[in-house]
Amino acid sequence: MGLWQALPYLLLPGAEEEDGNMEGDSGFITVQKVYYPLLCILGIPANLFTFYMICFRKCGMSDTAIIYLSCLAIVDTFYLVWVILLDLTLTFWQLQPFWHSHPACGIMGFLQYGSLYSSSWIVVVFTIERYLVLSSTSAKQHFSQAKVTRLTCVSIILVSHLASVPMGWINVVTPKNFTREGKNVTLPWCHYRGHIYSTVLVWVTTFLSGGIPIILVIIFNSLIGHHLTRARKMFTKEDRRVMRGGGTKGMVRRTIFLLGTVSVSFVVLSLPRFVTYCILRTKYNHDWFDRNDYRIPINLISDLANMLQNLNSTTNFLLYCMVSRGFRQELIHTLTCKSKARELGSFLTQTTMKVFSLVDHKTQPTRDPITVVLTNLKQTQ
Prior knowledge:
Protein name: G-protein coupled receptors family 1 profile domain-containing protein
GO molecular function: G protein-coupled receptor activity
Low-confidence stretches: 6-21, 366-381
Strand order of the largest sheet: 1-2
Membrane topology: Multi-pass membrane protein
Family: Belongs to the G-protein coupled receptor 1 family.
InterPro entries: GPCR_Rhodpsn, GPCR_Rhodpsn_7TM, Orphan_GPCR1
């Protein structure tokens, strides 16, 4: 198990499999060996491409939505690097990942939870901000400023990493004897520190990264839905048709629809891990419990929940494609280079029209000087 997957039931990855202690469904282990590298291969480029599309293409989003969603793409990318690539992928493909040594053991915990906090609370704050914008005119004027949104996102990331500093001390590195290729070797072992400090901190972290964000997202999305339902009754069919058609109201509606999709995805994919973790920490919190035994249903269910939550950091690109027409259109234009061709065609058309305008102006027929002279002479005679 890796730092992330087995916390706080952390075991040395690779050695248990080699010694035959990883019991149960070897097919599920094979699935994870393929699943986590695949998440990295698809998720990291998808998040970076999403960041480019949101920031540098016109996807029909408000300025505040662009800032929140681009920050979400960046922190999700870091989550994929720290948790999926360097932890879980190496756990299943290397006998001794580098983070079993000091100080990498503590640094990995800090970075992993810093990115998880950032991702969760960006979704929460964005949801709360959208509700305040809908319910208060003064809040709309304040939160509609891009400067305020940037400051908010930077504050979330800084506070999230500051709150994750204590996670650097929940694990400890100690030497341990293992059998490798018929030989006894002593290797550093990064494992959970079984102190009351670590137990309390892990429970606090569980609620800060999962329980509280999930509850807040559900509450404020419900309030947004109630507000929209009540406001809908105040407009005629013609008003609603105009609001759907475009303008500021239409942009707000599209942004809220997109946020709702992201929020629902966050809750659906994160809730199973929170529930299974609470079960593990209460009903199965015993020294003799083997977290690596997949014959025990809760171990299998818990790791499936881990896989779902980790999928949350890779799905935003697909969500934007499904629910945002502007994002889909810009994606098609980018992939087919239609946008560049359209811009070039527009530039050439404008240039050509300017040239013809100048030529027409210079070649306008004027009265022949000789005709003017003869006409004047005739009039004089």
